[in-house]
Amino acid sequence: LVLRHYEDRTESEIAEILGISIGSVRTHVHRGMEALGRLLEGDEEEGQAQEQIREQEDPR
């Protein structure tokens, strides 16, 4: 993901750098984005849960 989005490399550049096929690059990027999405969803849910706990402890 770093090569693709942070360094703005093309799929063919990444394939050459890593010594893998373009199809493998696509697969890794896709799976990486899915994993990142799951992590971010978890952070959002955790943040909401913490806010609910705070509200219960200190209702204003």
Q: What amount of the residues lies in strands? A: under 5%
Shape: rod-shaped
What is the helix tally?
3
Largest sheet data: none
| Uncertain runs | none
- Tell me the quaternary state: single chain
The count of β-strands is 0
Order of helices and strands: HHH
Question: What are the salient characteristics of this protein?
Answer:
60 residues, mainly alpha, 3 helices, rod-shaped
What does this structure look like?
This protein is mainly alpha-helical. It has one domain (2-57). It has 3 helices and no strands. The chain has helices at residues 2-6, 11-18, 22-57. α2 crosses α3. The radius of gyration is 19 Å and the shape is rod-shaped. It starts with a helix and ends with a helix.
In short:
This protein has helices spanning 2-6, 11-18, 22-57.
